[in-house]
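From: lab user (bench 3)
To: helpdesk
Subject: output format question, protein + flavin-adenine dinucleotide

Hello, I'm new to running complex predictions and I'm not sure whether the block I got back is the full result or only part of it. Here's what I submitted:
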Amino acid sequence: MTNKTKNPPIDRIDGRMKVTGGAKYFADFELPNTAYCVIVGSEIAKGAIASLDTQKAQGAPGVVGVFTHQNMPPIPGWDAPVGGEADGPAPKPKTEETYRILSSPKILFDGQPVAIVVADTYERATYAASLVKVTYTKQAPRTDLEKHLSEGVAPKGAEGGNYLRGAADGYKTAPVTLEAHYTIPVEVHNPMELHGILAHWTDDKQLMIYAKTQGVNATQNAMAQAFKIDPKTIHVHTEFMGGGFGMGLRTWPQETAVVAIARKIGRPLKLVMNRSQMFTLVGHRPYTVQTINMGADQAGKLIGIAHAATAETASYEDFTEATVNMTKFMYACPNVSTRYRIVRLDRSVPIWMRGPGEATGAFALESAMDEMAHKLNLDPIDFRLRNYSETDPERNRPYSSKNLKEAYQRGADAIGWKERRNQPGSTRDGGWQIGYGMSTGVFSAFRWEASARALLKADGSLTIQSAVTDIGPGTGTALTMIAHTVLGVPLNRIRIEYGDTSLPKAPTQGGSAIVSAVGSAVYDACTAIKTELMQLALKAGGPLAGQQTDELTLADGVLSVSAEPKKKVAVSDLMQANKLTVIDKTKDSKGSPEQEKYSMYSFSVHFVQVRVNPLTGVVRVSKAVSVADSGRIVSPKTAASQMIGGVAGGIGMALTEEAIIDHRFGRFVNNNLADYHVAVHADVPAIETIMIDKPDPIINPMGAKGMGEIALIGFAGAVANAVFNATGQRVRELPITPDKVMQKLT
Amino acid sequence: MNPFQFTRVTTPKAAISAVTKESGTYFLAGGTNLIDLMKREVILPERLVDINRLPLATIEKTATGLRIGAMAKNAAVADNELVKKHVPLLSQALNAGASAQLRNMATVGGNMMQRTRCPYFYDPSMPCNKRSPVQAGPDKGRANGPSGCGAIGGHNRMHAIFGASNKCIAVHPSDMCIALVALDATVNVSGPKGDRTIPFSEFHRLPGDLPQKDNTLLPGELIMSVDLPTNRFADNSYYLKVRDRASYAFALLSVGVGIDMKRGTIQDVRLAMGGVAHKPWRLTAAEAFLKGKPATEANFKQAATLAMQGAKGYGENDFKLTLAPNAIVDALKTATKTA
Ligand SMILES: Cc1cc2nc3c(=O)[nH]c(=O)nc-3n(C[C@H](O)[C@H](O)[C@H](O)COP(=O)(O)OP(=O)(O)OC[C@H]3O[C@@H](n4cnc5c(N)ncnc54)[C@H](O)[C@@H]3O)c2cc1C
Ligand code: SF4
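Helpdesk reply: Thanks, we reran it on our side. This is the complete output you should expect:
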């Protein structure tokens, strides 16, 4: 069984396809007679369209139509919420404003679509779009969260509630206290692949969609609601995604608009947005300001933590995330309070970005833990161990599994933590100062509902099907590995089909939940096949009659008696004897009731060594070690890749990424990949990944927990802590750019 | 992108006459800057004259030093043995710029002529005097956009601390040009009125009241080559680039240093800074101070203080007032191997 032994490292099943161009992304699909569209975005952040002249654009070569609020085809389900996460468009609480694309002259955010220009080629649509003339009546935009912090409102829903354990101001009674403010700027997912959609109404009732979505079923549902048609008439295909990081977790209004226009013009219609539109039309990590109050005693025991966060959202939609959650349960602390507020600004709506909420919160909490350890003159790991929570203090129940102590130890050994001096600025190498930092990350381990189908053919080949999209983490590889482990079918005889609504329903790829959710369904479907094979072998007159199920082994297409390997039957013979060409099982996985009795989390620990030039303020991450405690590792290679990608993203979050708004205009000024700095190779050292690889006995039969988010969560804090250790400079505002670190010449 | 005419030429003469004949005509070299500007509608050429076939890509030794053709690719110059041996500062500066792919396309002439990276300049919906020296009228459409300086009072983290005007505070973004100005290069140009040579320090200009003018090249003039005089700086030269990420980012600021050292004493020195002014910024006062002095940290600090005279911040870029002297000291220490 998967969870008893470690899984071998296997190559990514789609690796060759991806590097040879065989993997098709949404924009790679070409349909006959396709038209192309380009969005014209608002050049103001608040106000209204005063005049709109589309005449020149209409007359430009190849133009099929120019759609604005004056002639946008109706979307019958507008007032059903468009969008939503996971399986359904969970309606967002209504705010005073509503945003319905191309439905009114009102402008609510920078880049809001004011026209969609359709032409027979992308180039012609681009040119025609430049001919659309728009004038605006401007209003002063409110986009600066720092200036509107007092306008925070408690959002509806679980994330808006205040949390209290013990006394709210318990920290004040402690002998050692600190108060610190931490800021995270707007970050943009910026995957390589641009966002968009290709929509084709094969007739007025049948819709085919190729999209950049993290969940084909979610897109299907959203479109069904928007167009008031039966989801069964909508076919969505997204097998591969060139990076999502959260931006594809909902259906965006412009996607719906493209579908509506495609119906109107009676042609397939493709949208591929440009890079600057990636900053305004597909969400971002919200600018968030946090305050942590912390108190501890001289023995290094936490007395109290109060964690407050305020984040931006749009005027027309409340976006919330679990920014303060980690503080509730991470450490054994008697007095804990959290508070989360959002401020509605003239901004486009945020969306989850890798390590959503928790990555923001962990930067604050784990920086504060480091600050407190310093005040107490304790080693930061030691301080964490003194406050280690063996059981979940928030819900008063056990963790399904937690091996964080081992993770601290192994990471510390790997980075060479013993070289670290507690006194900041103690280690030098020429003109450079060296520091070490660490931080903890955590994310809920979910097990959502999902279904999968497994088909074992008499020729010994196995096909696995699920609608889930592989956004890049190696989902297909992990699912293949799970099937292989249950049925013993050689890896090269397993075929996996996914990313299509014609396949069994699956949740949206997100929340690090897919191995657990879809993996469980694959496990169940394969186990059902295995059970049937055994029944056939064991039944009266069967080749292994008289044996018991638990005496049998299934491997390499042969069912045998474990103790007497000579007693065996080939699966193909068994199937032929029973006149079966295929055994076909579909399973819905729902999770088990004991899940309610446990708290389930994946944990990570990040360690970094930095080199800082005190004159120029330049920070280089010179070593990085990330340790994952996420249950049994299903696919070690792709899991390590996930961690490496998370660390690269974490370095960007720590040192370089910031989408800058000029608040006079409420608009971005660095909305391109030259000026918005994602980490490049030169910023990223060799990364060591360590997997604890111990099965979680509760969560699912594989014992596996998710790992996409924990790879990033906490990393930025580790870098900030290392910069402090190197220099004595505490940077509480990300990113840690040279100007924040350089020291005055003396 | 707007429709435009395209002409390919094979002689400098043809290039010059094509550009002189019609207004709105631009030379096209590597295209790494010009094409971006066209896509963003900052510049709307009527015609491009492709000069990639001009025989101007050689790098050769001359009686007085080195001559580098205007069409030599940035990568080819950086990797050239003569350059690495005689003017390693130039090689270092080039390799600090852009990315390998861009350096393979970008040319020496194009690099000198590249426009500022001020974000307001690149976005025709934002105010900018450099892009729109006069307020755009309705007939001018959106190509020019509003005038004014978006960076003053706005996002100006990357902007100038020396020689700016109330019309424009942009910086020249090139790394290569910092090495060239430090090394006393001269620029050979050819134009409708004949050939002339421009000292590198006079090639680019300060914004003053004409922020639209980056340099002193006259209409129709083509950069033919750059000359570098022989020098004694090869053993002690260093290009320090401080940037927001380790590669593929423009300089917050940079320092180019070349030193002729004998037994710990600075015989002669060249110092220039990038990312601080509308032109590559030569630090002549600091050079004069250091000449003849021992290479000590105290002297470097004093030189840095002198270099900062007249510096002025505009808000977000105030940190450069601290970073610049730090970087000068750091670069001098590294170049003199006293770090
Ligand atoms: C993402 C990005 C990052 C970059 N990072 C850096 C960096 O870190 N440091 C750096 O220094 N640069 C950087 N660059 C800029 C790069 O160096 C310039 O784009 C390049 O040098 C321009 O050369 P080109 O040959 O492509 O010029 P083109 O784009 O072809 O031309 C630029 C201008 O020069 C004119 N021109 C070209 N040749 C001549 C000539 N012989 N005579 C007269 N006029 C001429 C053209 O008419 C045009 O106006 C970056 C560019 C990009 C796109
Ligand atoms: S600094 Fe110069 S280039 Fe930038 S906005 Fe002002 S005028 Fe334009």
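A quick orientation on your result: The longest helix of chain B spans residues 320-335. Let us know if anything else is unclear.
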